[in-house]
Amino acid sequence: MPRFQDRALDELRPSLIERDFTQMALGSALISVGKTKVLCTASMEDRAPAWLRGSGKGWVTAEYSLLPGSTPERSGREASKGKQSGRTLEIQRLIGRSLRSVVDMSAIPEIQLVVDCDVLQADGGTRTASIVGGFVALSDAINRLIDMNRISKRALIGQCAAVSVGIVDEIAMLDLDYSEDVRADVDMNVVMTSDGKFVEVQGTGERTTYSKSQLDDMLSLAEHGISYLMDLQNAVLSDPPKPRSK
Amino acid sequence: MPRFQDRALDELRPSLIERDFTQMALGSALISVGKTKVLCTASMEDRAPAWLRGSGKGWVTAEYSLLPGSTPERSGREASKGKQSGRTLEIQRLIGRSLRSVVDMSAIPEIQLVVDCDVLQADGGTRTASIVGGFVALSDAINRLIDMNRISKRALIGQCAAVSVGIVDEIAMLDLDYSEDVRADVDMNVVMTSDGKFVEVQGTGERTTYSKSQLDDMLSLAEHGISYLMDLQNAVLSDPPKPRSK
Amino acid sequence: MPRFQDRALDELRPSLIERDFTQMALGSALISVGKTKVLCTASMEDRAPAWLRGSGKGWVTAEYSLLPGSTPERSGREASKGKQSGRTLEIQRLIGRSLRSVVDMSAIPEIQLVVDCDVLQADGGTRTASIVGGFVALSDAINRLIDMNRISKRALIGQCAAVSVGIVDEIAMLDLDYSEDVRADVDMNVVMTSDGKFVEVQGTGERTTYSKSQLDDMLSLAEHGISYLMDLQNAVLSDPPKPRSK
Amino acid sequence: MPRFQDRALDELRPSLIERDFTQMALGSALISVGKTKVLCTASMEDRAPAWLRGSGKGWVTAEYSLLPGSTPERSGREASKGKQSGRTLEIQRLIGRSLRSVVDMSAIPEIQLVVDCDVLQADGGTRTASIVGGFVALSDAINRLIDMNRISKRALIGQCAAVSVGIVDEIAMLDLDYSEDVRADVDMNVVMTSDGKFVEVQGTGERTTYSKSQLDDMLSLAEHGISYLMDLQNAVLSDPPKPRSK
Amino acid sequence: MPRFQDRALDELRPSLIERDFTQMALGSALISVGKTKVLCTASMEDRAPAWLRGSGKGWVTAEYSLLPGSTPERSGREASKGKQSGRTLEIQRLIGRSLRSVVDMSAIPEIQLVVDCDVLQADGGTRTASIVGGFVALSDAINRLIDMNRISKRALIGQCAAVSVGIVDEIAMLDLDYSEDVRADVDMNVVMTSDGKFVEVQGTGERTTYSKSQLDDMLSLAEHGISYLMDLQNAVLSDPPKPRSK
Amino acid sequence: MPRFQDRALDELRPSLIERDFTQMALGSALISVGKTKVLCTASMEDRAPAWLRGSGKGWVTAEYSLLPGSTPERSGREASKGKQSGRTLEIQRLIGRSLRSVVDMSAIPEIQLVVDCDVLQADGGTRTASIVGGFVALSDAINRLIDMNRISKRALIGQCAAVSVGIVDEIAMLDLDYSEDVRADVDMNVVMTSDGKFVEVQGTGERTTYSKSQLDDMLSLAEHGISYLMDLQNAVLSDPPKPRSK
């Protein structure tokens, strides 16, 4: 069964990042990966979380949400249900950990940077797209705070990106769309930094188990895709961000 | 004090509606009014709300949310707080009532159309922009359901749009942006149909009271603005919607 | 179809305010409008809301509730459901805004006055009755605080009252009871001050739309009814409140 | 230290029951015990609770609430906090069990009677006043349902009432008001039926413990007070209830 | 109908207390009464509850939970339902009041001792077992805090224990197991101190009422059972607790 | 820095599984890994989750909780906070997925097996201990249901176990205790089946990133530890479970 639009097994869907899609938050990026679209914004809060106050350190956290109209079958609004699902909480914890891996917490003292990832359209890979776009929003926010002399220049200590890989019908493939994801035997999300190291590897065999060699195949595909996405991030970020009036 | 970019007192901010900004929901529109941007989607649920079942009627409802990064000061996410604010509930009740005024509930039997209005960027007038954009999304959803022979042709019985007006420094003006809204003595939201009738008039004197003649002035301004926005809706909707594969 | 007990179109239902129905709160009034009965109490809290602290200003807020046994069909208790409905929140926001229009916030520094409106029996018009009775409770609370030298004499800067009007079978009428309300095409709540100005106008065409001339007719009826209710408030408040031992 | 208004140790506060204080619910009573005022209403729901359906039996339950303005220091509204306190839940469980002791559940098949006890003014003894007034409301509701041929004539199988007793400064006394309750070493609530049997005995030594002879003294006082309150119930209920139009 | 394993009417089920079953909390006891098993732990929190701060006093509180797998029919997890039942809150209030009766709050200044009672297996009598085991955990926690010079030596001012009694088929009996509890006409929980005084008496006639002489019979049985359980507590606590490394 | 009690880098802590520690649920196991103790129970619910009904399939799910007294610093009770943390939800999703990998859902039609993992004492590795002990409880529950002819014999299709591995001070080691976990640069949880395949690999570099060769080292250690734990499971399960009376 060929992939949609004859995509190769190691080929990403067409991907695009629109910088500053909105302009209220300190950083903003609309990332599209195939039909998946995620609006990522990075905002600053003047207070670190309670458990960190007085430590001289700051924090980076993330929140994630599927807009109700982002899916063919409308997904219920968590705000009206009164609680976030386990899936949502698990995803936002992953995004937060990933982004923290490239920020020096002692360089953003007593503040918190919050990266909001709101999925406008969902077609698989929303959590990894959130990390890729979230990094762009976060990077711009940090650079604007540096320009405003709010934080030190060494706050951003690396670059990170993420991609999903999986095994469908016993074949490892890169960047599953939704129709592939529901048929997948194994689903894996990989987050890496620009020095080729892993931040997160989360591989789940929901329908079947997987061998060590399959794991290795998936990690190779992921490395390949992440490298491409980092080029995309770098292209978007090549100019310094425009100053925010605020 | 002149308005931003020397806007006239009876002039709307530059407004734009992007039809089918997303393509999972049955209808979708991204409306921009100045810096305010709202993504409106219309989805169908196969079941009417419980209190209506078996009546042979359907229902139209709306949900509204500010994305956390839509404001200069990040606004907390209601899903993580575990409840929607009174402001949110009040706004979504207004949007729902307004859109129901142009739909024949007996022509959409036993289904529910849900219009989600998610504010990507907030600079005043988000609830009225939601009604204007929500109408476009709803209209497309209804026409697609007609094309799919799911509902009868006479479901959409009118056109509605909305605008805010207010009194700032004793002067009535159309379409307040956020900086005007916070200085306003009186804030009024008006929803009308294309036959020049009112669906909703909500005028609040938060800082001062207002006279009958001020009320009349504001209603005239509103009528003028709504007429313009209806032209915009008609231009966007002039072609029939493209079929959804779903 | 004649009104109950042959009431005229511009006639209020028999209305009565019992001052000091309870005596724990600083002010208390039981208002009856036809069968509708609302117990309004005004209490003082020593702290202004968090967002106002240190500003030298105080605040007035309102809470509203239908007692479960107030309706022929028992209405569920919001405390046991764990959340207040959109209707409740919308109503208490309206009552709070209305009562704030007659209080000088800088004259009640760093305190909060809370007006609780608990509906003992509901037969239409509960939100407007709450405003009428709430004003009496608030006025007594403020005057008692003045007598106790807790706040300055100029805290109360006006008088407000409210009434509902509507269009039933194409006829505008004053003060709808429940049986009229469910048949109404248009329902409007109007809040005014004693100088004939509007605090709030909220007109909703749930079943149909309405023209400008119908709007004007409803506003005239409302002005007439509010004038009567202000006389009733004045009669009740003609003597100074008795001191509270507290 | 003498009691307020030189009340004897075995003397109830002045008590009054106003039947049909409201007229929407099937039964209604406003009970005053000293300054304590509780509005009790009894409503019918057409469905028994889920766990009982199909058993041929019905159920009686109670809900209790302090109105925020019922106390000198305003008590927070549980509906806005989003949960009921342990105290509230404990009290309403007690009221429910007490009232169930006098109803034959098989005589009210597949329905639920809900007794709402809303405290308009709180000065001690609100839970026992709720039982006394709740019985009157429930009795009227049951008799009206019998008149409407909804339930069988033998549904009400007894009469119950309740009173608080306590030990203050080592002295046992009947019917503690709030000022006595806060000083009490031991606080006991007793619920009895008209045949002199106990439904509930709940004695708590919050500040100190108590001996068997002190327990016996308190039970004697309680029996005396309950006998008086049953006479009051009987006087109020001596005529049959007026028919409800509903 | 004889009792399980021919137990006499005034005989407790086999009871056992394992001290220090876990070792993270300051005190820990696993109590078994027949098949009922409750793990009780006592922990210290460095801050008194808000309403007590600055008073120089401390507080003792309790929390109670049924593990979902503790009952033959799995009981839902309250954490996932999002609220604790009325039963849970009522029980933990009882345990807390009981344990506070034997602690001098001024001897544990500005701290809070929390006794957690988690039911691993439920076969009747879980609330009274929690009090018996909770006392052991609390006693060890207090003695360890004394050894660590955190609190004064006179914090523990008594010993308390509890048992259930009831009337089944008109016969009073001690320590009901679950099968007896569901058939019981009257269910009573009694908490006493070692000087033979009552802390709590809670007797409920859910299915029938009870006479004064039946009450007296139940209290005698309870006194007998509590005396035995106090011996068990004393045996377990005869040696001083081993030091905690923490 | 040597490990506690000179444990080797590839050595598990002393581990023990007590089968049938409680006897109400269909399966029960108390697992100890070092000081970590988790009580796992498996219960049956007669209905599959709503989304599965009518499919002829069943479901296996898990719930996880830390008892408040399981940690040196008392952890707050999620039931009283009213929501489960993201950590809790993430862990119980992991346990559920892992256990589902060894059950054939079509062999347990229209029922749900719930595995509750309640941590009595927490010293690192609670989620992996929950999987190891949860498998034992689940296996016994399934075998008892087979004995009761409730489900088919082929429901259990494999064996699974789990362990944590990590990198501390640049050294990979097996089965981190809490003191190691807080110092770890990388933390990884691995779930495998008895045929040497992976169910889950979750590796997180919270403090630093990790290379492919470090990943491989950790996976080797995990395979070694899991093999030992599977022997332990097999030893415990070598006899068939005793019948449950229920």
UniProtKB/TrEMBL annotation, chains A, B, C, D, E, F:
UniProt xrefs under NCBIfam families: RNasePH
Organism: Acidithrix ferrooxidans
Keyword match tRNA-binding: yes
Keyword Translocase: no
EC number annotated for this UniProt entry: 2.7.7.56
Subunit structure comment from the entry: Homohexameric ring arranged as a trimer of dimers.
Keyword field: Nucleotidyltransferase, RNA-binding, rRNA processing, Transferase, tRNA processing, tRNA-binding
PANTHER family the UniProt entry points to: EXOSOME COMPLEX COMPONENT, EXOSOME COMPLEX COMPONENT RRP41
Pfam family, one: RNase_PH
Catalysed reactions, semicolon-separated: tRNA(n+1) + phosphate = tRNA(n) + a ribonucleoside 5'-diphosphate
Boundaries of every Exoribonuclease phosphorolytic domain copy: 11-141, 161-223
Domain of life where this protein originates: Bacteria
Protein name in the entry: Ribonuclease PH
GO molecular function, one term: tRNA binding
